[in-house]
Fold each of these.
Amino acid sequence: MGIALSHHELKATIAYIFVLAFIPIGLSMKSELIVFYSENQRIYGNLHLPYEKAPCIITLHGLESSKDSSKWINIASKLHDEGYACLRFNFRGCGEGEEKSEGEFEDVSLSRRINDYKSALQFLHSIGRVDTNRLGVIGSSFGGMVAIAAKDQRIKAIVTLGTPYKIPRFDKPLIPKEVGQYYVLPSGKRFKKSFYEDLKKYDLLKDIKNAPPILIIHGSADEVVPLDHAKKLYEAASEPKRLEIIEGADHTFSNMDHLKKVIDLSLEWFKKYL
């Protein structure tokens, strides 16, 4: 029997799971390297499964990040230890080496990342190995914008980390330089001017009103996204909602004590609402 697909899912070409390798991560967690497709482009990810039909958390990395930062590996490991499956993947054009997802970073847009996210959700439904009635998501920065703007009803709980409600064209300190038809970030990565045109389709302060239970976490020392963004998202969200400001934490929660707090708060939220 076929799976009924939404409009967005029809646009995203979904294939079947390819378990490419079992990679030991730490002492207790194993990682299955998997592949699925979004708009005919290959997406690489890792599925951490403590047991069959476990509730599952999808992780959404930020604009220039990847699934393989130490933050996401630590989060996935703790989720696994607590009995949650975790799917972390590289958005199109992101990642390094053999696990870099197909596509070019310069083509990035909120719409394309939403399609990748919905493809990941459809992938989880297609393999039948996790409890798809108990799906949650953690989105960091631009990944948090994806989680909110997608408005996917299959998600039962959301956690956002350092997430903006908008991206002004010249928002300090990430001031992209205009070079022809591109903007160039301080890292040297570039994206097309159409990135900003695409953002105009979305209003996160409106979208968040219909979000499932949402936990908004922000560092008081976030050097990329001002704390005011978290407060505006919280004010616009409907109950159940919670705002947690971690004193002294930066944008990536690079301090392990701050990251531990993020993980503990997230687990508390998912245990309550999944």
Amino acid sequence: MNTSSLPTLKSEETAELLKKAKEGDGAARDRLVETNLRLVLSLVSRFSGRGELPDDLFQVGCIGLIKAIDNFNTELDVRFSTYAVPMIIGEVKRYLRDNNAIRVSRSVKDLAYKALGARESLSVAQGSEPSLEQIVEKLTEDGIVCKAEEVAAALEAITAPVSLYDPVCGDGQDALYLMDQLSDDGHIDDEWLESIAIEQAIGRLSPREKSIIDLRYYKGRTQMEIADEIGISQAQVSRLEKSALGKMKAEL
């Protein structure tokens, strides 16, 4: 799908549509889907080369987008794209995992997730990583009859394909995800989300403003060089650049 001609929204418009969609406005929901297809495409492109058809990945990413729209909490001070990105990525990763040649049965996955939940609660309670025997004991207390070797095998079975965005325990908005148990001192995701936000902000500029920002900040041209290239004065370039940066700042 060619998304270059698709419309985009300002943050205020997105917030308003999210409220309407939450109230059951189907047209607002469809509008949110349409105006975020570029985001889906940019995210699923990261998974190219996995042996899956691009159109299939795009459709799966759209499912993640729809889930993000339906589950987004409009009362929180969070940008929609910040919430939608992990939802879309998680949906694609689940699809890739479930279509992996090595399939893990649902019962084994369920036991593994319950074991991860038990390990998390024990870690919090005792301040240290619990042993396999302690995890089995905790599961037994919760009414789950299993052997230590079964728990070990279940945990090993999901180690490779499991997604950071798979729920460990709970459901709905109270779910605990694997990513909640991990830290990243490099802030790679933060930087990536910031780059996506900048890309979206640039996408809302006029064609001339986009051209000036591209030449000025991505190709390293001076204002005078830009003026000569596009046929306007240096003062006009300066005004357009300042205007574009102001619009982008309002979006970020």
